[in-house]
Write a structure and sequence with these properties.
By secondary structure, this protein is an alpha+beta fold. 33% of the residues lie in helices and 16% in strands. The chain contains three helices and three strands, in the order E-H-H-H-E-E. It has helices at residues 21-32, 51-64, 67-74, and strands at 12-15, 79-84, 87-92. It has a three-stranded antiparallel β-sheet with strand order 1-2-3, with no helix packed on it. Helix 1 (21-32) packs antiparallel against helix 2. The protein is elongated and about 50 Å long.
């Protein structure tokens, strides 16, 4: 029987979002080439996500979302990664704006 050894680390590393332009170009191309299925019979969400909703969402990600602005906005926060039980965990370390909200 094979066993898995989990290596624990206390190391916390700085992280910055930096999506390569080639990845965004590939995403745009794949979204543009999407072959949409016909909507299943039934009303609304009774048989899953409506195709029209998915098409609208995909169009937003393809043409309406400013990836670089979102990336810059997220990079304003201190971000880190660490390994917990073999999984890389990404987190932000941000103090609340007002201590009174935390009570």
């Amino acid at each position: 029987m094979a066993s898995t050894v989990l290596i624990m680390s206390n190391e916390i590393r700085s992280f910055r979002i930096d999506i390569p332009q080639a990845d965004l170009d590939d995403l745009h191309a794949r979204l543009t080439r999407t072959r949409w299925p016909a909507q299943l019979p039934g009303e609304g969400w009774s048989r899953g996500v409506p195709v029209s909703y998915l098409r609208e969402l995909a169009e937003y990600w393809n043409a309406g979302h400013d990836w670089r602005a979102a990336e810059a906005r997220l990079n304003q926060f201190p971000q880190y990664v660490t390994d917990i039980e073999g999984q890389e965990v990404h987190f932000l370390h941000v103090a609340p704006r007002s201590r009174t909200r935390c009570r």
